Amino acid sequence: MRATALPLVACPDCGGALRFDAHARPEVDGHVLEGQLICGGCKREFDLKQGVPMLLPKDVPAIAVETAARFATEWTRWTELRDYYEKQFLDWVSPLSREDFAGKVVLEG
User: Fold this and answer.
1) Is the peptide bond before 95 cis (omega within 30 degrees of 0)?
2) 79-106: b or e for each residue (b if 16 or more CB lie within 10 Å)?
3) What's the half-sphere exposure (Cβ side, CA atoms, 13 Å) at 57?
4) What pLDDT, on the 0 to 100 scale, is given for residue 109?
5) Selection from 7, 28, 29, 30 nearest residue 19 by Cα
6) Residue 12, exposed/middle/buried by CB under 10 A (0-12, 13-18, 19+)?
7) Do the beta carbons of residue 19 and residue 48 sit within 8 Å?
8) pTM
9) Helix/strand/coil for 18
10) For residues 46 and 55, is the Cβ–Cβ distance under 8 A?
11) In sequence order, what DSSP letters do the residues of 30-80 get, joined into one string?
């Protein structure tokens, strides 16, 4: 996660601004890959794993956590990109096109 993305995310519990903890250091191309985000409002801490903030509210049901874990497994298991995946994605985001994403950073949440 880049520091420039911090204004785009907030604490899921109180809506407070987030900051990196003192141990988080930019590693690859300015990305902070490991560490924690700390809420300026409620002081809650969120892990940052492989550059992805784990912004789960306190009251997330266990079934939602299990579902998220299954999706994480799928992303690491089926990593190849096929032509029909791209077509399906572009159908979902229509009227946007491939060119609309060129040179941009996209957060998939």
Assistant:
1) yes
2) eeeeeeeeeeeeeeeeeeeeeeeeeeee
3) 8
4) 64
5) 7
6) middle
7) no
8) 0.60
9) strand
10) yes
11) TEE-SEEEEETTT--EEEEETTEE----TT--HHHHHHHHHHHHHHHH---
Pull the structure tokens for residue 54.
């784990």
pLDDT single digits (tens) 54-109: 888 888 777 777 777 777 776 677 767 778 888 888 898 899 898 998 888 777 76
Q: Give dist(CA 69, CA 47) in Å, integer.
A: 15
Please, which pLDDT band fits residue 18 given cuts at 50, 70 and 90?
Answer: very high
- Do the beta carbons of residue 23 and residue 11 sit within 8 Å? no
pLDDT band at 27 (very low <50, low <70, confident <90, very high): confident
Residue 19, SS3? strand
